[in-house]
Amino acid sequence: MTDEKYMQEAIRQALLAREAGEVPIGAVIVYKDEVIACGYNMRETSQSTLSHAELIAIEAANKKIGSWRLENCTLYVTLEPCPMCAGAIVQSRIKRVVFGAFDPKAGCAGSLMNLLDENRFNHQAETVSGVLGDECGRLLTEFFRTLRQKKKTQQS
């Protein structure tokens, strides 16, 4: 039940991204049963490659904790982390990652590979997948369907 509760918080972040015209991906970081940081995708707004929900949340958590080490934290994110975000998760020492929808094109927490469980790294993160996955996936599907419809309308 707790994973679903915090994933709902990540979904709220994804909805903020959607309202801003961004791909609806949201993330929250939990420490001692408290949300200490959140973020949502802001790549289009910032025009920065690094503006993924997970990286924004990690940076906010670093500031809140006062350390780059997030060893006893759990990251909840609506979409499976990409290679960049998976690398940041390993580097930040996040203990646990819970994600909603799988990403068959870029997912690096089980879809294409699992960088979070790569034993050649000095840190691995426990991974839980598919939490509210249908709801998280639906947000993305609807967003891209609407985007395609807008493009068709503009081309007509």
Provide a compact summary of the structure.
With 156 residues, the protein is of the alpha/beta class. The chain has helices at residues 2-19, 43-46, 53-65, 83-92, 133-155; strands spanning 26-31, 34-40, 73-79, 96-101, 126-128. Strand 3, helix 4 and strand 4 form a beta-alpha-beta unit.
Q: Helix-strand pattern, N to C?
A: HEEHHEHEEH
Order of adjacent strands in the largest pleated sheet = 2-1-3-4-5
Helix content: 40-55%
Number of strands: 5
Tell me, briefly, the overall form: globular
How far apart are the first and last residues' alpha carbons, in Å? Answer: 47 Å
Unreliable residue runs:
none
Rounded average pLDDT = 96
Task: Output the number of helix runs.
Answer: 5
- Structural category is alpha/beta
Largest sheet: 5 strands, mixed
Strand content: 15-25%
**Radius of gyration over all CA atoms, rounded:** 15 Å
GO biological process, one term: tRNA wobble adenosine to inosine editing
Family: Belongs to the cytidine and deoxycytidylate deaminase family. ADAT2 subfamily.
Domain CMP/dCMP-type deaminase: 1-126
Cofactor: Zn(2+)
Can you put this structure into words, describing what you see?
This is tRNA-specific adenosine deaminase. There is one protein chain. The chain is an alpha/beta fold and about 160 residues long. The protein contains 5 helices and 5 strands; from the N terminus they run αββααβαββα. A 5-stranded mixed beta sheet has the order 2-1-3-4-5. Helix 1 (about 1-20) runs parallel beside helix 5 (about 135-155). It is globular, with a radius of gyration of 15 Å. The model has no long low-confidence stretch (mean pLDDT about 95).
